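Retro notes
What went well: the complex prediction finally ran end to end.
Inputs used:
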Amino acid sequence: MHIVVGITGGIAAYKAPELVRQLVKAGHTVRCAATEHALQFVTRVTLETVSGAPLYSDLFASGGTEHISLKDWGDMLVVAPATANIIGKVASGIADDALSTLLLAFSGKPVLMAPAMNSLMWAHPAVQRNLATLRSWGIHTVGPAEGELACGTSGVGRMAEPEEIVGQVATLLQHAEPLAGQRWLVTAGPTYERIDSVRFIGNYSSGKMGFALADALAGAGADVELVSGPTHLDCRHPRVHLVRVESAREMYAAAVEAFPACRGAILSAAVADYRPESCADHKLKKQGDEGMTLRLVQNPDILATLGGMKNAGQRLVGFALETDHELENAQGKLERKHLDYIVMNSLRDAGAGFGVDTNKVTILGADGSREESPLLSKQEIARLIVNTVTS
Ligand code: CTP
């Protein structure tokens, strides 16, 4: 596995090279990211030698995008030692150096922190509150232990030993990849249905929900075939294979081809139900006062088609964007299209639906289960959906 070890400025930083050495010995590939203060306690040369890779400590090196490449590269981020300062920064969303910026970008994958500080600092309500915030976001912690501290006192605050941290890494990685070896299909974004060489019928779908789903599935270890209509989004997770399409018929062809090899599919695309009957290969001229009639014909229903193809071991999940009689309509779609789950968005909910970064959903199961989410980011909603439909 690819592990990023983040090191912050506490005396326990002297144990970081030993941690890196043990992670490498356990078969992991390691890259280090250190704060400026950490480099007062442990040298760049030491960290680069034990990890065998360049250290990341300058936010503006490589054009200022290294935190994003490292986030894509890493399967897990371990911060050891984690000072009260870095814990407070992450809890407050502060990103003012290489490591804190990486920590904010590192979403959808496990983060383990090994706090180390003086016992009075550890007991401070601000530190305890910040840690509670991090834990509520799913960040894991190991230690600190009780014992002699570098400042000459003793109490709670010693960083967990490298062996214990390596053990936690192994446990978390096992739990973090429950979908390893599975392939999933995701559809995302709008479809464009051509009218002529310069015009189309489209919709406002941004693709954000589908891309977040692909990221959450890949983060859980799955290989993902992401079939997306036109969007400005990009997905850099190495386990996501992005297939860009334009029309509903192209999306249909890509999805039908990919589905048989998949453990399941989540269809979040906003597919045009109709397309113009014919598409002019030139730009249509305006036709004057009498107006213009565009005849539309129905597109194939990708979700219903996959529902018909599905075998007993496969899971199929659809979306329903409803404005009226939401539950009734969603339940109807679940049954008609032979789905295992349907994720319902109500356009009546503020903050849910097209374009925005948040969503609020109800997940209905064919087994009668029903789960309602609060308003969350699309990334959090994606993780909730993936946990529900893959368990
Ligand atoms: N869908 C699809 N192919 C289509 C139309 C829709 O795969 N041609 C999928 C969407 O990706 C979504 C689900 O079907 O997962 C719900 O789409 P929606 O348009 O809400 O449902 P319809 O069955 O088209 O019903 P209606 O338009 O009557 O609401």
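What we learned: Residues 162-176 form the longest helix (15 residues).
What to try next: split runs per interface for comparison.
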